[in-house]
Please model this.
Amino acid sequence: MQELTHYLNGAHVKGTSGRFADVYNPATGEVQAKVPLANESEMDQAVKYAMAAQPAWAAVNPQRRARVMMKFVDLLNRDMDKLAEALSREHGKTLPDAAGDVQRGLEVVEYCIGAPELLKGDFTDSAGPGIDMYSMRQPLGVSAGITPFNFPAMIPMWMFAPAIVCGNAFILKPSER
Model:
């Protein structure tokens, strides 16, 4: 029986809660894997890792963060068939529906490549007598997403791509289903 892991701080980490959920093959109904259910201390550890990583990531300029999104787009395009097959196998989607799930997420990632322009601040000289106005775009810090089972690629990408390209750290809690 395959036992899945958490992915924390760039590494696969076994769950420590002792609690697992079954992962079913939707075509056969058979259990194909077990996924660990995180406990409070595991969640706290994920937040600590994200908080430690976020300041350095936020210090990376927006153009370089956009280049990370460009590379991610290249990888998504390269592995589209593999990703669609995995979604089909794990969620019971048809291959065209699974590829569409990835494609719709990919479109948001592509949009995020334009973040350097969107993240520019604004300055207005003499907005009023002796008044100048400016705005600055700054990361929020650590953000998180809890996603449903029915769009396992698209909705996470809708959440993490904008968060990451804006200089935030991101914690994803996908559906256990």
